[in-house]
Amino acid sequence: MIVSLLSLQSRRARSDETRVALSDAADRFAVLAHARSAMFDGGTSSLEIALRRVCHALSLHAEPRSIAITFRVDQPVGDMPADRIAAVTLVANELITNAIKYAFQAGVPGQITVTVGRSADGAAVVAVVDDGMPFPDQPPPGGSGLGLRLARRLMTSIDGQLIEPTGTGKAFELRFSNNNKQVTA
Known about the structure:
The chain has five helices and five strands, in the order αααβαββαββ.
């Protein structure tokens, strides 16, 4: 329903900027709705299933630009509350979407890899890595940096961390406990 309302508003928008913003929002909600429906496959909540669905859905958006998105599980993170899965999935969606939009020049193929695993101290880790252009110090033209600010806040809401690339690195890491504590935002 939200996707339909955003799409309708997008078609009615008078400015191109507003039309694009509403269309982007509709696309993001559609991907997240798809992932949310997958979270309970088999009756259990699963971060891996939700992230796999997000990667697949975003692959369809990236395919015309020759950007491949791969997903792998190095080590499962186990059962997690749905609200924690939703927060991590939303942050991963934002990072992948930003990479699709800003890391690759038109006509240049690329790769985005999303990996689930554990750190040496047992924390759950989701890594989002791309082989595109280096991460800029400032938001790209037309970008506000709002997505990264939201991502940081979402990770903080689950007592997690968003670790951004340093230097010429291209790896974002989401680190969090996979305990069953409910999220409070």
